[in-house]
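Quick question: what would this complex look like in 3D?
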Amino acid sequence: MKKKADIRKIEPYLYITPITLILVTFVVGSVLISIFLGFCKYNIITPPQFRGLGNYIKLLDDSKFIKALWNTIKLELYIVPLQMVSGLLMAVFLLANRKHLLGKIANCVIFIPFLCSNAVVGVVWRELLNGKFPPVEAFFGLFGIQPSMLLGDSKSALVVVAGVAIWRWMGYYTVIFLSGLMAISKTYYEAAKVDGAGKIRSFFSITLPMMKPTIIMALFLSITTALRNFELIFNLTGGGPNNATTDLVMYAYTLCFKSNSAGYAMAVSNVLFVLVMIAALFQKRLLKRESSEL
Amino acid sequence: MRKRVFSLMLAATMVGMTLAGCSTAGKPQDSDSASKTLDVWLAPLDDDTKNNWDSLLTEWEEEHDCDVNITVIPWDKYQETYTTAMSSGEIPDVGYMYNEMFPTFIEAGAVVDMSEYITDEDRAEYKYLDNGNIMGGQYGWPIVTGVPFILYYNVDILNELGEEPPETWDDFVRICQKATQDTDGDGQIDQYGYAVGMNTSDIGPVQILNAYYYSVLWQNGSNIYNDDLKSVAFANEAGVEAMTWMKDLTQYMNPDFMSYSWSEAFSTIFGTGKAAFGVNRSSQTDETTYAEAYPDLNWDYVTSLKNVDYGTFGATDSLTLMSAAEDKDLAMDFIKYVTSAEFMEQYHAKCPGAALTETESYVGDPKMERIYTEDKDKWHGIQVGPCSSDILTQLAADLQGIMTGELTVEEGLAEAEEYSNNLLNEYWAEQG
């Protein structure tokens, strides 16, 4: 009898052993190795040499790192708000028009970019912008823009990267917001209608407050996905012109694999890791507060 | 109960599979009966490198009782694959490297100095052996060379302008100036002097140096490093003059030159007849392939312009004997065989390339032959020195900054020089 009870105690741990092994090996292990190598001079080929805080001190004086950090922040600032607004508006549009033909088509099409890899999206957009396609030229011409100039200008190149990233992820966030919207009971809207509230008032007084947990979750997902632009940048601009589109991930990649400075690259990655950790902790706190309020 | 036992079994199986997946299985055993194996890593040298090589190696394999395992590494992850392989201990016996790759591997002791394997006959036979002499040792055994970046010109445009093919910088600027014009009278420039692309998303930042910068630098008598490799030379007076000349050419370039990669600029602007000049990596088969790709283009080429000197970049890629090779004599025999006239004549018959040896005859298009005869001394590889990847990546970024006008020539070169010299100082200090 006691033996059976013991087995029952162990049993749950056995179930989670496979995923724990995978997580410990590939996530926790990688993070620990990265933290350690961040304190080393390491070129992947020869054994690492410990150099204390040397890499981190070097970061403070590294203009390319500062530029990459600033580009990362700018990308976040461009992508996150626009992604939230566009995703939410698209979700509202799809929900309102889900029975119309246009809504049905949009419902199917909106998710397609998300199914493509970033690398493919990057190549396709570079071709679209540089390919001198008359419809593309005409569209940008409406705003007085020559599309083939966009990727080569250090001011516009980062905006293009952000725009393409928003376009790619829009379907993903639309689906998240759509599920949040569909979870709101119709009775709230009916009651508001009886009280004489219009569509806009209902949106701000019912939809937005009820969507708050979904928005917070989407917001922090967006903060982390906005960091995942490596393949896009790689294929659109290669990080140029003059590092104008090099973000921290791209910089770490270049250091690690082009300059053979893996130790220093780990230090750059660890800074990024800390930034993401702060964002994750902030999200957790917000969500906790939100759920206690609800 | 049964369900629980089944679930536990599934969990145990997953653990087993996870562990098995993480285990190092070692090199796969070949089913063939040969007593030796040789692992060779190559870059994509043609459309079907593995099969093309395998079919030509049968005799050598039988003669040496050896299986050659060819692995073709894609260009976009080339250096990464080598470095990560080094760290995981999965190193080939024979590698294939471009010159800029060597310093890190030489410093790490990952490649062998092949000097002791070179005989007098080899010196007489192999034409480009010196190109594999890097940092004081024969670490590379050239296998692909003779595809320099050359200046192509549109014969029709030059004829219309009443110009002869350019020989000097002055000729080039004059023709570019005349060629940059509005041909259809709509008030927009639609024909350019020079088709250029400096977007580095193609195959890395260094490519824009290969295509456009080295030639200008060398033609003006400067270089990347000073001779002692302890500091850089590209920001000296000749270097500043060269960069200024290049910057001044932007007025004759397609205005979107920073959005296109060098190959896109060549194909979409020069290839469609919208520019007098374009730069591309030459090939012995250009005459044939361009006839298909650009049927309306009447083109010819100048291997190199001359200012103070001639010079344009022609890469040298080499086979290298890896330190991890168990049987170095066998690996060396293989390297010599595949670079010999016996092997290369068969291979070049399938995939044309420059003859590596004195006894191999030229097999490319007649139009391209003068690159390897009268113009042979007008192209060469780059100096190989410490920290080259870092230095060249920084230089490429500053070149972009200068060309877009974000930096002045002096600012850009000074930034690249300071960065490079700091790296070199650190490097040489560590070397003692």
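Answer marked as accepted. Chain B has two domains: 2-145+316-370, 149-313+387-430.
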